[in-house]
Amino acid sequence: MAEKPVTILYVEDNFENRILVRRVLESEGYQMFEAGTANKAFEQIEKNLPDLILMDINMPDMDGYTLTAKIKENPAYRNIPIIAVTANVMRGDKERSLEAGCDGYIQKPIDIDILTEQIERYRKKAHS
Ligand code: MN
Questions:
Q1: Residue 24 Cα, ligand 1 centroid: separation in angstroms?
Q2: Which residue from 106, 108, 128 is spatially nearest to 117, judged by alpha carbons?
Q3: For 4-22, how does the pLDDT look when each residue is reduced to its tens digit (9 = 90+)?
Q4: Distance from Cα 39 to the centre of ligand 1, integer Å
Q5: In the structure, what pLDDT confidence band is assigned to residue 124 with cuts at 50, 70 and 90?
Q6: Helix (H) or strand (E) holding 34
């Protein structure tokens, strides 16, 4: 019998990024959920309780820091690892994402050759 797939919610307003990451991660056996806005992200979390969240920082309705802090406020969701996806590592986004409660960060543009490895590293960290 097949193992239950690991579920990932990718919060990202850019359609091309969503297509790319979905393709890569589905081919690795992950089950993907997506949200293009913060509101949609809350809906998805409630409905699907993902094992991990990939969080774009620049979003139209609410930035990824604020959204992460809101998710982490809820005891039911606090243990879901959240990985910030940010292009702005030079502007202190790494520090800000960790302050907001992110469990780690991935730099944009996403390197698809190491994405799975990064995800697995943060999953293991969250469960240790
Ligand atoms: Mn964005």
A1: 19
A2: 106
A3: 899 999 999 999 999 999 9
A4: 14
A5: confident
A6: strand 31-35
* Å from CA of 58 to ligand 1 middle: 4
Task: Enter the CATH code of domain 7-126.
Answer: 3.40.50.2300
| In the chain, domain spans | 7-126
Angle 53-33-28 (CA atoms, 0-180°, nearest 5)?
85
Tokens describing residue 80:
């879901």
Express each pLDDT in 73-85 by its tens digit. 999 999 999 999 9
Rounded Cα distance between 88 and 106, Å, is 10
Strand 31-35 with 52-56, pairing: unpaired
Percent of the chain exceeding pLDDT 70 equals: 95
The values of phi and psi at residue 54, to 5°, are: -95, 125
> Between helices 15-27 and 115-127, what is the axis angle to 10°?
70
